[in-house]
Batch of 2 targets.
Target 1
Amino acid sequence: MMAGRGKVFAWALYDWANSAFPTVVSTFVIAAYFTQGIAADPATGQAQWGWMQAAAGIAIALLSPALGAVADAGGRRRFMLLCCTVVTAIATGMIWFATPGPGSTLWALCCVGVATVGFELGTVFYNAMLPSVAPPEKLGRVSGLAWGLGYAGGLGCLLVALFALVQPDPSPFGLDRAAAEHVRATAVLVAVWMIGFGWPVLLALPDPPPPRPSWGDAIRRGLSEIGRLLRGLPRNPAMGRFLLARLFYTDGLNTLFAFGAIYAAGRHGMAFEEILMFGIALNITAGLGAAAIGLLEDRLLGARNTVLVSLAAIIAVGTALVLVDSKTAFWALALVLGLFMGPAQSASRSFMAALAPPRDVTAHFGLFALSGRITGFLGPAVLAGVTAASGSQQAGMATVLGFLTLGGAILLTVHTRSPA
């Protein structure tokens, strides 16, 4: 068992490990491969990807609060994180079998959907470990450090994908470019990356020692605890409004992440190699923003104001991104937007860690995940519907701005005496 800085590093390293999935699969490579290499056309692919993300969002909304409460009641947080990580890695690796052409549509969507559910559920148990590795006055910097390390991990995986798999021609591994094996192999890389770097947190932060309640007792206690927490929200208006605000702005952020590369590929004609370079550059600015603004969060801004400033910047830059026709301008604006992507999420996590009582922190992070996913189907569904109805990726992406604005407006009403 590690102590002090070793425990913090082991916890933060999991962000390095699991960030490969949203970076390579959900955003920059596999998402673009689906719309360009599998779907009938980019607009159809964006709509299909949207419906898949919507279905995954419903599953996450139904499962996350209950499983979070069960983990608290049963003392099995680490075991459940392990299970979610393994499920995510296996489902991601199976994307290898999604060959080019519409015949692989259902397989690809199912693999990514299952992996997305596993990834999001895993973050419930992972995020709930934050109060056990950082004191209240350091929640922002530790959360920001982990988020910055996560962007660095996504960057590292993208670099390996680009220079070892996607770019070499001929491939040193004998990959068939005509069958898109050089692109599909990036999913296998992500699976290995998650398992290879994700294990230290399981050693550093073990579950409480036995005795533990049986699974049946843990489920009964967990569901009872969720009912108690939900009934208590009206007596905790700051928590209730924060969760409501996060419901909308996280829906917008998740939709932005899920469709950023799809939009770049379809709207600005970026090929896979350029998408990877775009992702590498974006991860650099995002990692710098998460780490730097995490320090400002503790020393100056506070978690709530950090989220508000980040959302305001994302809305302003995002509006310009939807309007510009120049690829050069799109690149420049996206890199600026990246500076604020990490802080919006990292500060939300540290704010929740400060608000949640220690005895049921995982259950509260289950509600945290619920608030980010209970309408998680809505953003992708609205985007998919608008894209399908208009035939315009630009019109579909513009819907993200409404979710971000609504979430920010509600967060403005959240007031708490907490230093966070």
Target 2
Amino acid sequence: MHPRPARTTPWRRAFAAEARAERPDLARLCLLIGTEADPALDARGMAAARRRLDRLAALLPAGPCCPRAWAAAVAELLGVRCGFGGRPGDYQRLESSLLHQVLRRGRGLPILLSVVWIEVARRAGAPVHGVALPGHFVVGFGPHDAYERCVLANPFDGGRVLSPLDAQLMVAGATGAPLDPAMLRPAGALDIVRRVLNNIRAWAATRPERADVALWAVELALLLPAHENRLHYDRAQLLVRLGDFRTGAAELDAYAEALAADDEEAADRVRRQASAARARLN
């Protein structure tokens, strides 16, 4: 398909390049997301955020002997001494999904607090990774290739270590189903970034006046490798909602063309939406 291109900026080009790097830099990608929401965030501000992560890592003790000791040390530093954590009200704030703001405020969503935990612990040499449990992102301390035996910590709760029962109850509360060991697999940097963008879109979806936020989140998601074609449809709907009927209609036509090979009926529905968008130009 050949959709109309999204707005491009130097920061978006940097985001796209980093997302396609052999080893994408999680902190850099999250900070580049912040440039969309905060025009004041520039190269100097991003460098300051990275220095903050470096300084926090330097405060950790040298080489705890086991994953549980690492989890305890990071929780003591970030959760107790620095006060990083979350509250229910943080879900209502866009800043809770922006790394530079989470570093400044000490509050955020579970996944952004987990990014702080991961980046600080990794800089200090800890075996650490993200774990995308259904409904709640946590951190795992231990080898990537033995994730079933990793120590799980909940940064939203100040880094509290989760027992196996805690993790099972967390999953059951979110899904009604038992914990599947596959849920404990380490989450890659791009998986984390994709989930951050999905959270931003979910935040904007309940605020029709912030369709602009939903649009840039979709457009960044489209810059990630192996994105879903459905994102083009979502972008088209947002463009129409924001009054860009011509571009939205063109995007709908492109999406319908891609759909037609597998589902002509669905393609026709999308074409009718494109026609309705063009009719609003008159």
